[in-house]
Amino acid sequence: MKIILTGGGTGGHIYPALAIAQGLKERLANCDILYVGSNAMESVIVPKAGLPFTAIDVSGINRSSMLKASKSLVKFPYSFFQAREIVKKFAPDIVVGTGGYVSFPVVLAGTFYAQKTFIHEQNAWPGLANRNLARRVDCTMLTFEEAREELNARKIVVTGLPVRKEIQPADKAKARKKAGLNPDMFTLVAFGGSRGAARINDAMLSFFKLRPTLPTQIIWITGEDNFEEINRIYNDIKYESDQNIVQIYPFRYDMENVLGTADIILCRAGASTLAELSMMGLPAILVPYPYAADNHQEKNARAMVNKKAAEMVIDEFLDGDTLLKILNELRADKERLIQMGENMFNERKPNALNDILDIILS
Q1: In 3D, which of 348, 328, 336, 331 has the Cα closest to residue 308?
Q2: What is the C-alpha to C-alpha distance for residues 95 and 97, in angstroms, rounded to an integer?
Q3: What's phi and psi for 125, nearest 5 deg?
Q4: N or C: which end of the chain has fewer CB atoms below 10 A?
């Protein structure tokens, strides 16, 4: 069987496609997979994952001005013809798109030249590419039920989002002992993605300056950008007593171990992050990235707030005082914090990958 996977621009579109690729290889002995992306981050990540990769010349719609948006749209016919030639030459049985601007011309070409086409939408607010493809493909798969009402689709199935097998509920005491933390102390894990989130980092520095009175141990992943400067500022304001209860890193590859220590998470609201938090039943303070396309991170966060699984702070309103206030409120109401974790856990979709594979291969 020959399959084209496409999706890119952000890790939220790339990693679900890679999970699907791995699942297909495990199920099918003779599976020929081609990943079609752009020259963005997928051009580095996908070849490292061992998949054949080819790129088309395509760019997202720049919404900052009509002129820039027009330039992106003018390029689309060329991108479609490139995608069409790749699809015709490869002759796939199936084309699967996981979102991002690159998926639109590839899946669109697949609707003409492949036997079956599928898309997966990660966010509570569907992206422009998937909103336009949903009416043409054989099945649209969703992470959030909330996205259904925004789509005019031939068929919709809520599957959830595939996550790594290592992401599972953890024994906090054991995870903290492994991390060199106090097994019994309230623990905050803060992160903003591989490159970090400036607003979260600034709020954390302000939080430390306030000197929270309740003992709190922290794992703070700043992102690789500006780590040295952030660490220097922290070292200037830290107390000697912080040494054993505050850990700061630019990046961690073993996020399953980090998340396993947490009583609560401070993070952005990307779909992949929320899927991992739900698998582990971790309540969160969500700070949606304000420049995400169609503000989809805020839609993701509101979906979790409505289910009483998280608190949300709009990016521009997050500071040390706000963070301290929310943490103190949650710590004072342990039953509420526990219920938030249970509500988050109820959103998990542990069979997401298998359900997606069943649909694709049915």
Answers
A1: 336
A2: 7
A3: -115, 115
A4: C
Q: Give the percent of the chain with pLDDT over 70.
A: 93
Query: What's the pLDDT at 66?
Result: 45
Report the distance separating Cα 243 and Cα 86, nearest Å. 56
Q: What are phi and psi of 207, to 5 degrees?
A: -60, -45
What is the spatial distance between Cα 237 and Cα 251, in angstroms, rounded to a whole number? 22
In the predicted structure, residue 326 carries a pLDDT above the cut 90: yes
pTM for this one?
Answer: 0.87
* pLDDT at residue 289 in the model: 95
- In this predicted model, what pLDDT tens digit does every residue of 106-115 receive, in sequence order? 999 999 999 9
Q: SS3 breakdown of the chain: % helix, strand, coil, rounded to 5?
A: 50, 15, 35
Pick the CATH number of 2-158 from 3.40.50.10330, 3.40.50.150, 3.50.50.60, 3.40.50.2000: 3.40.50.2000
